[in-house]
Design goal:
Length: 242
């Protein structure tokens, strides 16, 4: 399976933003248009784009669907999520041109329902976002834009989904998200050993091209790049060459 570099755009009230460690009070807003930024990434050679509706993730509704649709209609393969709570939301994203729907909170809270969607629509149409915090020796899984604690753990749910045919797993170490501290390579080595059949996307903390190479060597099948690209720490074309 090939390794894929995926630039990311986080949306809040239609604007391009980044949060530190998922904290909505620690927001950086970038003076760029989301659709134009997506076109720049496509022009640099990116085949995929990761879009996050931060308003939806916290509030439970697709608040930035119009922006997501405008980007998806431009021709890139888009995986998008944030605010998906029902199958109608999944269909709205598919209808908007989204190639893969990202399921986070629902994948943690209602795995049975999500497993049904994997069977109905096909596992290739979904990316499961099991974003995690290391607490008391366990990889915990906060939900609702990382604002609410849940009882299930990454080591419980990732193998459960793998056994049901899930193909794509996005896993962010929340402590590193937006911190430019490098990927948590221990986490991705662990996932590569635990769920080898799943294509794991590493996210959270990338700061250099070496971090991308290290994630690949740790067993990740892809990386999500957000703040590092927006702040010009390296060019997307350089990252794609990794």
């Amino acid at each position: 399976m090939s390794f894929v570099v995926i630039p990311a755009i986080d949306l809040r009230e239609g604007r391009v933003v980044r949060l530190k460690q998922g904290d909505y009070a620690q927001q950086t807003t970038y003076d760029v248009d989301a659709r134009e930024q997506a076109r720049r990434y496509a022009g640099a050679g990116a085949a995929w784009l990761h879009l996050v509706d931060l308003d939806g993730a916290r509030g439970g509704s697709l608040a930035n669907l119009a922006v997501i649709e405008s980007i998806a209609r431009d021709g890139m393969h888009v995986q998008a999520g944030g605010g998906v709570r029902a199958e109608a939301d999944v269909q709205r994203l598919f209808d908007a041109g989204v190639a893969r729907v990202v399921l986070g909170s629902l994948a943690i809270r209602e795995p049975g329902r999500v497993a049904g969607w994997l069977e109905t629509h096909g596992a290739e149409r979904f990316t499961l976002a099991l974003d995690t915090l290391r607490r008391d020796g366990a990889w915990t899984l906060p939900s609702a834009g990382w604002t609410e604690a849940e009882s299930r753990t990454l080591d419980e749910l990732a193998p459960w989904y793998a056994a049901r045919g899930a193909r794509h797993l996005l896993c962010t170490d929340i402590d590193r998200d937006g911190m430019l501290a490098g990927f948590n390579l221990e986490l991705y080595r662990h996932l590569a050993a635990t769920v080898p059949a799943m294509a794991v996307q590493a996210s959270g903390g990338v700061r250099s091209l070496e971090d991308i190479r290290a994630a690949r060597e740790a067993g990740a099948r892809g990386v999500i790049l957000g703040r590092a690209l927006l702040e010009g720490r390296f060019a997307l074309a350089e990252a794609l060459a990794c």
